[in-house]
Structure formats: C-alpha cells, structure tokens
Design a protein that fits this description.
It holds the Pfam family MTS. 33% of the residues lie in helices and 30% in strands. Helix 1 runs parallel beside helix 2. The strands form 4 sheets. It has an 8-stranded mixed β-sheet. Strands 1-2 form a two-stranded antiparallel sheet. Strands 7-8 form a two-stranded parallel ribbon. It has one domain: 3-Layer(aba) Sandwich (Rossmann fold), CATH 3.40.50. It is of the alpha/beta class. It has 8 helices and 14 strands. 41% of the residues are buried.
C-alpha cells in the first residue's frame, strides 16, 4: 500500500498527514521513558507512530493521542485499530488545550510531544504544514502549563525540539515547577553541531543526565547507537 511505513510489529499509513514519519518522532519514541507507566499522553499524535512505538515498549500502558488536524486524527485512529496494540490506544480529534481543559481530572505518568518548532519563522503557504511545524511562543507556554497540570506525581514529560528552542522552553517550564531530568543532544554526524535536543521534565529536583546521540556514521549508514535504539522497530536492523 502506497504511503505505508512498515515497522516490525505494526504498520503506519501516512495518508492525509502533513508531517510524515521522521527521525525526530521515532527517536523521541525510542528514548522517552518512565518506569512502568500506566497512562501516557501523546500531544500532536499525527500518524500515531509515537503512540504505537510507546505501546510496544510499555505493554501495561493505555495511551491517549490528541491531534488537532481531522485527517491526521482519522489516519491515526485507523493505524491504532489495525494494530495489535489497538485496545490500549485512543485518539482524540481536538487541540491539546481544549482536550485537557475538558478533562481536568486526567493525570499521566508519561507525556510526550514532537511539537511545532519553527518560532517566528517564515511560514509555508500550505495551511496543514503551518499547523504541524510553525508556532509562536504562546504555544509553548500553553504546552508546558498543561503538562504541569496533568503530569502525575513522579511522572515525566518528554519533548524533541531544535537546539535553539529547547533552552527557552526549559526556562518556561521552570516557572511551572518543572525541572530538567534528561538533556540529550542529537547530531547528524559525529563532527556536526547539535541540531535537536530530546529532553525530559519532572517536578522533582535532580541533576540532569546529559548525553548525545549521533544518527549517522557516514552518509546513508546509520550509527550503531541509532541502530540499537531502533532495532526493535525498524525492519532494516
């Protein structure tokens, strides 16, 4: 089937989704973690790939995916229903703000998001891509505020953002009592600068664990570290 990305334990149809499966999303899903989470929230689920990977990693978890774009939400719902993990996956067509405001009682052990990330940049003429990739600073204020309100005690919220955006978001999070736990720089090649940061936030005070992930050893050849992270998911490993 055209547009279908095949993983080892599930398939992901990308039809109708402005943002296709990419390295950012799968890296976040492979790295983000919390000891034995029971409730997980995926903000901006898109195709549902992050939720599906987390469902595979955490067999005891129920996962809610929230997606503002109707076509993407429908695609995610179809991907969930066709998966063996379907009974533990739910998709909601809504903004995360509206969804969480309506369900103020909900608490999650693990929250993940591969959010829009181009702050104050030139926007695409395509509305769906604008929604998926462009945003203003108010978005991150709302994102952090909702995470703080709906994160369970001892839980963690994980994000992947450009290197220049992650720092300001961390500063915003501090105003809501969220402190960094992990700070992982992502590089395309060993000698390249960090272009993405995967980081986690929680309420407890601790020394952040800092590390790096290099995606490629050479052009078209993934690094052993990347392969180790994705070996349970990608059919090429």
């Amino acid at each position: 089937m055209a547009g279908v990305f095949r993983f080892k334990q599930f398939d992901v149809d990308q039809t109708g989704c402005a943002m296709k499966i990419n390295t950012d999303g799968v890296l976040l899903a492979a790295i983000a973690g919390q000891p034995a989470p029971k409730a997980i929230l995926d903000i901006g689920t898109g195709t549902g790939v992050i939720a599906l990977m987390l469902a595979q990693r955490f067999p005891g978890a129920v996962i809610d995916g929230v997606e503002i774009d109707q076509a993407a939400a429908q695609t995610a719902g179809s991907n969930f229903s066709r998966s063996v993990f379907g009974p533990r996956l739910r998709v909601f067509h809504d903004s995360f703000q509206a969804f969480l405001n309506r369900h103020g009682h909900l608490k999650y052990d693990l929250i993940v998001s591969n959010p829009p990330f181009f702050i104050n940049s030139l926007k695409s003429p395509h509305a769906k891509i604008n929604t998926a990739k462009h945003t203003g600073e108010i978005f991150f204020e709302e994102l952090v505020a909702q995470c703080a309100a709906h994160l369970a005690a001892g839980g963690s919220a994980w994000f992947i953002l450009p290197e220049g955006t992650a720092g300001p978001v961390k500063e915003t999070a501090a105003r809501y009592g969220l402190k960094p736990r992990h700070w992982i720089g992502v590089k395309s090649f060993g000698g390249h600068p960090v272009h993405r940061v995967i980081f986690s936030l929680g309420f407890d005070e601790r020394t952040p664990i800092e590390s790096e992930v290099v995606i490629y050893e050479s052009p078209k050849n993934y690094s052993s570290a990347f392969g180790l992270l994705l070996k349970d998911f990608f059919t090429i490993f």
